[in-house]
């Protein structure tokens, strides 16, 4: 199963993180954080909701299964949604439904209305740029920052970005 290396779902909000330390994560994931995230670049991952951490790990695992070993790409898999923060599943539903109506309408709602904030649309709309800035401030490499910043941009001739996007879409 995709989540065989992940801990069971926890019920209390405070227990939803993996103990808050890098060493705790090693017990739950089959990789060492130090292999791909250096310095404070790892800290944003710890603040993500458990579901977001699981998604990030699934994206990472998909890339590894496809033979990717480049550290910046694997780090981007783990951190590409870091600025989504504490969004809930209902925010994701709002994102998908408003996008099904119209991507342009969703963008207007996200950036121009209080409803966009309430529905979590603004965070979703801006998370790639905000995450890139967060990781850059934490010492992420220029390539890692670029992959996070561009993970929604159309770049058919960028093999790394395409690999990240395909793995993200699959998971």
Structure description:
61% of the residues lie in helices and 0% in strands. Residues 1-24 have low confidence and may be disordered. The protein contains 11 helices and no strands. By secondary structure, it is mainly alpha-helical.
Summarize it.
With 171 residues, the protein is mainly alpha-helical. It is built from eleven helices and no strands.
**Mean pLDDT value:** 81
Total of helices: 11
Number of DSSP strand runs: 0
Helix fraction? 55-70%
Q: What overall form do the CA principal axes indicate?
A: globular
Supply the helix-strand structural class: mainly alpha
- Model regions low in confidence, pLDDT < 50 over at least 5 residues: 1-24
Characterize the main sheet: none
Specify Rg, calculated over alpha carbons: 16 Å
What's the SSE pattern?
HHHHHHHHHHH
Percent of residues in beta strands: under 5%
Topology:
Blueprint: H1 22-28, H2 33-36, H3 43-46, H4 50-65, H5 71-79, H6 89-101, H7 103-112, H8 114-118, H9 121-137, H10 142-149, H11 159-170
Helix pairs in contact: 4-5, 4-11, 5-10, 6-7, 7-9, 9-10
Task: For this entry, give a set of tags.
171 residues; mainly alpha; 0% strand; globular
């Amino acid at each position: 199963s995709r989540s065989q290396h992940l801990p069971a779902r926890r019920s209390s909000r405070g227990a939803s993180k993996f103990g808050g330390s890098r060493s705790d994560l090693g017990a739950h994931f089959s990789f060492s954080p130090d292999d791909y995230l250096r310095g404070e670049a790892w800290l944003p991952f710890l603040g993500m909701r458990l579901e977001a951490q699981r998604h990030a790990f699934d994206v990472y695992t998909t890339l590894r299964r496809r033979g990717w070993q480049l550290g910046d790409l694997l780090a981007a898999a783990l951190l590409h949604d870091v600025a989504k923060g504490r969004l809930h599943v209902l925010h994701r539903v709002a994102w998908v439904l408003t996008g099904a109506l119209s991507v342009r309408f969703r963008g207007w709602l996200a950036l121009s209305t209080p409803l966009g904030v309430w529905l979590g649309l603004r965070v979703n709309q801006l998370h790639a740029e905000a995450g890139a800035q967060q990781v850059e401030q934490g010492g992420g490499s220029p390539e890692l920052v670029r992959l996070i910043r561009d993970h929604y941009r159309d770049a058919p001739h960028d093999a790394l970005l395409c690999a990240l996007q395909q793995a993200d879409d699959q998971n």
